[in-house]
Amino acid sequence: MSNPDLPPELLPLWELAAEVGLELRGTLPTSPLEPEVMARFQDWLADGRAGEMDYLHKAAEVGADLSQWKPWGKSVALFALPYARQAGGFKDGGRVARYALGKDYHNLIGRKLQKLGKRLRAKNLTCAFRAAVDAAPVLEREWAIRGGLGWRGKNTLLIHPEFGPWVMLGELVLDCELPAWSPPPAREASCGSCTRCIDACPTQAFTSEYEIDPRRCISYLTIEAQGAIPIGMRKLVGDWVFGCDICSEVCPFGDHDSDRSEDWGLLPVFAEHRLEDLLTISEQDFHELFTGSPLRRAGRAGLLRNACVALGNLGRGSLELESAAFHPEPLVRRHAAWALGEIGELGVLQRVLKLETDLEVRQEVETAIQR
Ligand code: B12
Ligand code: SF4
Ligand code: SF4
C-alpha cells in the first residue's frame, strides 16, 4: 500500500495503521459539523424516528461536536473496512445481513483501532485516544462524508466510490493536531437520477430520498426493537432473520468489489443449522453458537421472535413453532402464534389458547385463529 498524495506528517499514522491491518482513509480536525446537519438530526429525533434507540439522543448532544464528547480531541482519523460477500443465512433459508455472517465488526474494527491508538502512544505521537465503532455517540456517516470517503446515498448510507455501500466505518479521536486529508476520490460521483434503493425497499422505510424512518426498517425491527414486531410489518419482513441488505444489494456501486469473506469469516451456525433449530436450542447453546457474532445484539428472545416471523413467511417449521408457542418468553410465544396462523395450524392454536394466560399473547392467538 502506498499513497503519493499523503502529507508527510501523516506517514507514521498511515504506516502504523497498515501494521494493524487498517488503511487510513482520511483525517479531519474535530471542528463541529455544520448546524444544518444537527438541525436535521434534531427534527428527525423530534419526529420519534429513533424509536427504541435511546442512545441516539446522546449522539444529538455531542455527535456533531466531538470536542464536547472528548474535550481533549483535536483530530479524527477515519477508517472504512470493506465487507462485500455473497448473500447468506441459515441452512435452507432465513437471510442474515452480510455484515453479520462472520466476526462482529465492533470487535474486529474496535480492536484494530485500539491497537493503533496504543502504538501511536508508544511512539509519543498521541497521548489520549478514543476508538469509535458504531456504538459511540459519533455521527459516523457525517464525519466520513466530510472526510471525503464517499457521498451520501439516497439509502442514507455512505457510498464509497470503490466499495459502494459495503463498508463498515470506524474512527479514532486523537489529541494531536493532524492536517485535514482525504485520498482523491476514485471518481467524482453521486447517486444521480438512480432511485433503486427507494423503489426496492419492501417496507417503504424511506420517507424521501436521503431520509429513513427506521421504525419501518427491517434492520431496526429485527435488531434494535426489543418488543413485538408490529403485526402489519411482519409479512413485509419476509425471511430476514437479522438485518436487511436490500437497499445495499440493489446499489450499482461496489458490485465489482472482491469477496471479503476471508477477512470476516463465516459463523459455523449458518452452515450447520436450519432456522427451525433456533427455536429449540437452550440458553447455553445460544451463547455458544453466537459467541463473537453481531446476532447476539438481538438477544435470544429477539432472535427467536425473528425466526418465528421468518418461518411463518417461509410457511414451514410447524413442529418447532408449536414448541415455541409454549416458550417461557411471551415475546416468543406471540410471534410463534402469528407464524402458526400464517401456516394454517389452527388446531395447534386452539390447544395453545386453552393453556395461555398472558393477555397480550392470548390476543395474538385469537387474532391468528380468526385470520
Ligand atoms: C441508528 C443506526 C441504524 C438505524 C437507523 C438507520 C439510519 N439510516 O439512520 C437502523 C437500525 C435502521 C440501521 C440500519 C442499518 N445500518 Co446502521 N447505524 C445506525 C447508527 C448507530 C447511527 C445512524 C444515525 O445517526 N442515524 C440518525 C439519522 C438522523 O441519520 P441519517 O439518516 O443519516 O439522517 C441524516 C441525513 O439523512 C441527513 N439528510 C437528510 N436529508 C438530507 C438531504 C441532503 C441534501 C443532505 C445533504 C443531508 C440530508 O440529515 C440527517 C441528520 O443528520 C450508525 C453508526 C453511527 N454511530 O453513526 C450505524 C450505521 C449507519 N449503520 C450501518 C449499516 C451497515 C446498517 C445496515 C446496512 C445494516 C443491515 N444490513 O441491516 C442497515 C441499513 C439501513 C439504512 N438504509 O440505513 C453502517 C453504515 C455504513 C455505511 N456504508 O454508511 C453504520 C455507519 C455503522 C458502522 N459503524 O459502519 N442503522
Ligand atoms: S435495510 Fe431493508 S428495510 Fe431497511 S431501508 Fe434498506 S431495504 Fe428498507
Ligand atoms: S441504489 Fe442508487 S440511489 Fe440508492 S444509494 Fe445506490 S446509487 Fe444511490
Written description of the protein model:
Strands 1-2-8-5 form a 4-stranded antiparallel β-sheet, with helices on both faces. The longest helix has 18 residues, at 105-122. The protein has 19 helices and 11 strands. Helices cover 43% and strands 11% of the residues. By secondary structure, it is an alpha+beta fold. Helix 15 packs parallel to helix 17, helix 16 runs antiparallel to helix 17 and helix 18 runs antiparallel to helix 19 (359-370). It has helices at 11-19, 35-46, 55-62, 66-69, 105-122, 140-146, 196-200, 218-224, 231-237, 246-249, 261-264, 268-272, 275-278, 283-289, 299-314, 318-324, 330-343, 346-355, 359-370; strands spanning 26-29, 75-82, 88-89, 95-96, 129-132, 151-152, 158-159, 167-174, 206-208, 211-212, 240-242. It binds cobalamin and iron/sulfur cluster (2 copies). Cobalamin binds next to helix 2, helix 3, helix 6, strand 8 and strand 10.
Short descriptors:
Leucine-rich Repeat Variant; 19 helices; binds cobalamin; elongated; binds iron/sulfur cluster
Strand and helix layout:
Blueprint: H1 11-19, E1 26-29, H2 35-46, H3 55-62, H4 66-69, E2 75-82, E3 88-89, E4 95-96, H5 105-122, E5 129-132, H6 140-146, E6 151-152, E7 158-159, E8 167-174, H7 196-200, E9 206-208, E10 211-212, H8 218-224, H9 231-237, E11 240-242, H10 246-249, H11 261-264, H12 268-272, H13 275-278, H14 283-289, H15 299-314, H16 318-324, H17 330-343, H18 346-355, H19 359-370
Bound molecules: cobalamin and iron/sulfur cluster (2 copies).
Residues 201, 203, 205, 212, 217-219, 244, 246-247 line the site of one iron/sulfur cluster (SF4).
